[in-house]
Amino acid sequence: MRESMPPPPMPQFGALKRRPFAFHPPILNVEHNEWRVRKTAGPEILVTNLRSDIEVWIPKRLIGEISGVDEPLLTVCLLRELEYKAGTLRPHEQRLVEMPAGPGGADGWGEPAERGRAFSGMPGREDRRSRGRRFAAGFAAALVACLLLVALVRYGPWRHRDPAALGLTARDNYASIVHRLGSPAQERQRPPYRALWYPERSCYVILRDGRYIGALDPNWRAIHHVNLPGSGDTLSLLRSLPRF
Questions:
Q1: Domain shared by 44 and 106, yes or no
Q2: Sheet strand arrangement including 193-198
Q3: Which of 128, 165, 194, 219 is the most buried (most CB within 10 A)?
Q4: Does 81 map to a domain?
Q5: What percentage of the chain has pLDDT greater than the value 70?
Q6: Do residue 138 and residue 166 come from a single domain?
Q7: Are 15 and 73 within one domain?
Q8: How many Å is the maximal CA-CA distance in the chain?
């Protein structure tokens, strides 16, 4: 039978009761590696995590050297890599690697007192992986939604609500506008101005002396203007145009 390693001397455990410590290697599936001894019971010690409600019993024979006595946080070396899973603490088993049997049983763990109790703890490695996968899926979905929105704005029906996107210029007249936009739902005239109402585009197309000079929204605010031959534009003209 393989001989088990003797537990550390009792003064070392006494120091752990007074000070927080970290395990090396860290216990898998526990996010924060800062612990404190709650009590000792025979061959085991009960430790509690300082950032969560996790409490586990650890056999003293699995605890090795305690170092860093001059540091704010002690380091407790574990003789085996442990993992916290389903509320219990067990030796971590590497895939495709056969774990040797220990003196306490087939898994080398034995039957520690009060083992198997349920604890509520912080998310472990598997939870972080799940969150990472959900984040990646959410990011991909958001990216696809943004691309669809850009495509709809650029090529969809909203694009044609902007007179500038339709290519109207100062050279357009009534006939070319109707050919491009269709017949207006309503027409208003105050010579030399003419207003063509297109409700599907929520705008008035304004002509002066039969030529396109810009567009106004339903509140009679300028949303598009054109450059005048030579210099200047029609923006100030549209802003000063009384409603009719």
A1: yes
A2: 186-190, 193-198, 203-208, 211-216, 222-225
A3: 194
A4: yes
A5: 73
A6: no
A7: yes
A8: 111
